[in-house]
């Protein structure tokens, strides 16, 4: 999937396939290529699989991030973007979620690895004067997304007449963020010249219940979902909702694709593939 996604620009960029857990390979690449800046978007994603494979998530997301930061330090890279996650907020009762909230408890290994990544970034920024921005992504969706993620999976299965798994009673809420808006925020972070270390939420600041998301996909596809009702999954949070006022003010972040626009765009992409 990743290779297919990058194929349209394969002639315009240099592609190196390495394992972030391989510190020697990471260092060799950094010394050979002489990067100006890093956007660290690579990680093992997903709450549920992290519960089943915590060591793999730790090695990749924490160890891999450390390897990149150390390679950046050794080669004099001064600008580093780290993709974090809304999952770091855990079961947060203060809504919307603001960057100045004190993080006290995560509820999945995945979330814990992202908190650890943020602390590694702040540490390297403090020790070595590296300019690092951590971006907390809120449930990203859009063209070319992974097929195991909710919107893609529901669309595919509803379109094919297959049953979908709904965990819980359908009242969990998510702040879905269209990929174009995330890209806008990432690019703005490269130009940020505030504190050496800073972090921002990137979301839409709008939430939708799971059952309403399924209904919206049904309406867009003009097909009815066959729902397999299952218990709530350990590690899932009941709500995510981004306070994006800081990103609006300091990054000029301005999301322009609400779910009512982004979902039909995704479904059109899916049907035209």
Structural description of this entry:
The protein is of the alpha/beta class. The chain has helices at 2-6, 23-33, 47-52, 54-74, 109-128, 150-160, 179-190, 210-221, 245-251, 259-272, and strands spanning 38-40, 79-85, 131-137, 140-141, 163-167, 173-174, 177-178, 197-202, 208-209, 226-230. The chain has a single domain (2-272), classed as Rossmann fold (3-Layer(aba) Sandwich). Helix 5 links the parallel strand 2 and strand 3 (131-137). Helix 2 packs parallel to helix 4 (54-74) and helix 6 packs across helix 8.
Task: Quickly describe the structure.
This protein is an alpha/beta fold.
Got a strand count?
Answer: 10
The CATH H-level homologous superfamily = NAD(P)-binding Rossmann-like Domain
- Unreliable stretches: none
Q: What is the CATH architecture annotation? A: 3-Layer(aba) Sandwich
Tally of individual domains: 1
Biggest sheet architecture: 4 strands, parallel
What integer is the average pLDDT? 94
Percent of residues in beta strands: 15-25%
**Category from helices, strands and their pairing:** alpha/beta
CATH topology: Rossmann fold
First-residue to last-residue Cα separation: 13 Å
Helices and strands, in order, run as HHEHHEHEEHEEEHEEHEHH
Number of helical segments with 4 or more residues: 10
Radius of gyration: 19 Å
Widest sheet, order of strands? 1-2-3-8
CATH class identity: Alpha Beta
* Dominant shape: globular
- Helix share bin: 40-55%
């Amino acid at each position: 999937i990743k290779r297919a996604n990058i194929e349209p620009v394969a002639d315009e960029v240099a592609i190196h396939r390495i394992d972030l857990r391989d510190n020697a390979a990471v260092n060799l690449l950094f010394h050979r290529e002489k990067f100006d800046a890093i956007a660290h978007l690579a990680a093992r994603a997903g709450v549920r699989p992290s519960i089943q494979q915590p060591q793999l998530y730790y090695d990749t997301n924490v160890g891999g991030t450390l390897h990149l930061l150390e390679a950046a330090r050794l080669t004099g890279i001064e600008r580093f973007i780290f993709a974090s996650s809304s999952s770091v907020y855990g079961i947060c009762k203060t809504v919307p979620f603001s960057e100045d909230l004190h993080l006290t408890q995560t509820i999945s290994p995945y979330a814990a690895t992202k908190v650890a990544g943020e602390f590694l970034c702040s540490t390297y920024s403090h020790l070595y004067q590296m300019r690092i921005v951590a971006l907390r992504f809120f449930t990203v969706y859009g063209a070319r997304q992974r097929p195991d993620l909710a919107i893609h999976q529901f669309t595919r299965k509803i379109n094919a007449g297959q049953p979908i798994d709904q965990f819980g009673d359908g009242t969990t809420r998510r702040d879905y963020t269209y990929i174009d808006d995330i890209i806008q925020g990432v690019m703005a972070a490269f130009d940020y010249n505030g504190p050496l270390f800073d972090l921002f939420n990137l979301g839409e600041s709008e939430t939708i219940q799971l059952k309403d998301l399924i209904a919206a996909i049904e309406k867009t596809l003009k097909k009815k979902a066959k729902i397999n009702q299952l218990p709530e999954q350990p590690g899932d949070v009941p709500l995510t909702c981004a306070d994006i006022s800081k990103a609006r003010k300091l990054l000029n972040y301005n999301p322009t694709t609400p779910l009512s626009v982004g979902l039909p765009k995704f479904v059109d992409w899916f049907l035209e593939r």
